Amino acid sequence: MSQRDYGIKKLSDFYKEHKVMKIKDIMDPSPNLIRTSDTFEHLIKVLDAVKYHVVFVVDNEEKLVGIVTEGDIIKVLIPKYASVDESLISVMDANYFERKCIASKNLTIREIMSKTTIIVSEEDTIIKAAALMVVNRVHTLPVVKEGKVIGIVSRLTLIKHITKILSEC
Fold it and tell me: Cα–Cα–Cα angle for 140, 146, 151, nearest 5°?
């Protein structure tokens, strides 16, 4: 029996019917952006309403300069020594976290962000984005054109695309 007898299309037929998908075909064109001069307090308000739990940081010319993730925020609030020696966590004051939140309120995004080095363009293939996510252990990638963020691709976006492919077989 052939593959078609089982209701499964041949791969060659599938490829003939589908164009090579690019990032522009699956990206979300509405990434969340914040400026380097914005504050920690503003960031927290923005993050409360974002879809991907990541915010791309842009300068005054709207050029991508960094990224802020949930991990970056937690790093701001945890003392440096806790990451060096886990046993020191038990000696921390019970109200440390709350005090640190208040003390960090006016930090600028530039002080919190991570530099962005991993990007994709709208013309890149989906496999490139997937590979970059796996190799670099990231969940989202900025889609950049001429230095400006024009979209976002996430692991969830890739999963939805996989679901679509499998439903069409």
Answer: 30
